[in-house]
Amino acid sequence: MSLKAVIVEDEKHSRETLKNLLEEFCIDIKVVGMAGSVDDAVETIKTTKPDVIFLDIELQTGTGFDVLQQVPHLNFEVIFTTAFEQYAIKAVKFSSLDYLLKPIDLEELQNAVSKAQTKKNQDIYKKQLETLMLNLKQRKPQLNKICLATSDGIEFIEVNDILYCKAEGSYTAFILNNSEKLLVSKHLKEYENLLLEQDFMRVHNSYLINLKEVKKYVKADGGYIIMKNNDTVSISRSRKEDFIKLMQLLT
Fold first, then answer.
1. What's the whole-number mean pLDDT along residues 96-125?
2. For the chain, what is the mean pLDDT?
3. Where are the domains of the chain?
4. d(C-alpha 168, C-alpha 231), whole Å
5. pLDDT tens, 215-233?
6. In CATH terms, is domain 3-136 a member of 3.40.50.150?
7. Equal fold, 3-136 vs 159-250
8. Does residue 159 contact residue 198 with C-beta atoms inside 8 Å?
9. Which long-range CB contacts under 8 A does 39-46 form with residues at least 24 apart?
10. Per-residue pLDDT for 87 more than 80?
11. Minimal CA–CA distance to 131: which of 165, 158, 98?
12. CA 9, CA 241: separation in Å to the nearest integer?
């Protein structure tokens, strides 16, 4: 079944380019509307009832998030587009939602469309969008929740509930303060980039820790960290000085 798509982009050239890419290279997707402003986007979405919208984050009349707030029913999928790796994209990543960086790469576009064609659990997807909107209300680097895609589904976790993250091959294990362990099929590096501004630190190649959950630093045996649940975490020699400085700033 063909997906109905709406493109929300304030630059006419970008709208037309994306439309042409979709029509030429993406099977089973039909562009049913395009809009260049927040008001036009809201009206177009209401009248065309799309399955998916390609939503530019920065519009001249507002943001893509303003569009989502004004649409009464979020019963469509969203693929965000942007020219910048800014704070808003970090919030999108926290919510495990899809986005495309401009200029749009054809393979990434096809992958995003392929994901959109896979029927998602609408309740879970709505919660992902709600998590995004909640985090964006902060209007500052501190984010409240993160969505983690596990083998069982998507977990919605308070960032403050994470004790530390541990690299396990190409996976990342999240250790929570209720002793739960979640295994996510992404590299630790990806979460390091997301969590550094949330008072987390990469103290070792294998560990990314929540500095607010540190119980003790032990100098013996080359140095190691004890977390509040009494788990021990290795620390690299080159990162000890930075770790101590950051801990002093938190106290």
1. 87
2. 90
3. 3-136, 159-250
4. 16
5. 999 998 889 999 999 999 9
6. no
7. no
8. yes
9. 41/6, 41/8, 41/67, 42/67, 42/70, 42/71, 44/6, 44/8, 45/6, 45/71, 45/76, 46/71, 46/72
10. no
11. 158
12. 46
Q: How far is 53 from 48, CA to CA, in rounded Å?
A: 11
Give Rg (Cα) of the chain.
Answer: 21
CATH of 159-250 given 1.10.530.10, 3.90.1170.50, 2.130.10.10, 2.40.50.1020: 2.40.50.1020
The mean pLDDT of 123-150, rounded to a whole number, is 79
CA distance 230 to 19: 54
Write the DSSP symbol of residue 93. H
Which pair of tokens denotes residue 81?
């587009």
* pLDDT higher than 60, residue 141: no
CA angle 197, 84, 195 (to 5 degrees): 15
CB neighbours (10 Å) of residue 166? 20
Number of helical H runs and strand E runs in the chain: 8, 17
Q: What is the pLDDT of residue 237?
A: 93
Q: Which residues pair with 176 in a beta bridge?
A: 162
Q: What is the DSSP letter of 126?
A: H
Element (DSSP H or E) covering residue 43: helix 38-48
Dihedral of alpha carbons 36, 38, 42, 45, sign: positive
CA distance 135 to 155: 16
According to DSSP, the residues that pair with 207 across neighbouring strands are 166, 204
The β-bridge relationship of strands 145-150 and 153-158 is: antiparallel
Query: At which residue do the structure tokens 């790469």 appear?
Result: 105
